[in-house]
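Readers of this paper often ask what the protein records in our data store actually look like. The remainder of this section carries one protein's record, kept here as part of the documentation.

:::
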Amino acid sequence: MTPTSAEKARMIRSVELSLTDMGPGLSVGVNGIDGETARRDTPAAGARPQPVPRDAPRGVPSESLPPWRSVLAVVAHPDDESFGLGAVIDSFIRAGADVSVLCLTHGEASTLHGVAGELKLIREAELRAAGVALGISAVQLEAYPDGGLAAVPLTTLAAEVSRTAASVAADGIIAFDSSGVTGHTDHIAATAAAVQVGADEGLEVLGWTLPAEVATTLRAEFGAPFLGHSCDEIDFTIVVQRSSQMAAVACHPSQALPASVLWRRLDLLGEREHLRWLHTV
């Protein structure tokens, strides 16, 4: 269930105080204190989802994720892993996968600034705290220009994705849809790099997307340029649990403001998330 406005404010304030308590270094390791991995218990290997037939007809989305054991999430900004992919990442982890995140910018150009201080440092700390909340195995944060990924050569970004995918022995990659979901050029560039690596190295790539009707509602209510897909263009509709995602969202108080469109999107999506193949093998 999506939290009330009062609950949102309490969550944000709680994490804001936690970030303050970290001190000047603003450092939170994704493996927790003294290397103790912050992972939830996961099902036995026999409970893993079965492979999804690649020739399954579109229009009837699968409810089971691919049985990847190591998953790399490629995103443009700190908070994309939580606001966008959070419930999908959680679903992979609950199915027994290790999930790592490659974030290509520090998000320093954001127009939102819900926490005082240098945004670049704040958002790095928020990302690492969210990694703990989600149970992510590793976070790789790069320093490409926020708002400028489209100007970075695709080969350069793809090389970053390739190196990280190799380091975690990724079986597959998840990213935002090729539209960027919101049309943000940074999202589009990050996903293009992921798809390029998928094509070059034989890795499957899934894109997180919205149903067309959800995107239409968000555009009408907020004037936000959300882009979605019809049912026959969506390959997976999965039932998700939001608790870990909400804990991760609360780790981003500089961005998760009470008036954010995020809350309405979660209301509209309910207990489901949607994915489509961007590259298959």
Observations:
- The longest strand covers residues 98-105.
- The CA atoms of residues 81 and 122 lie 16 Å apart.
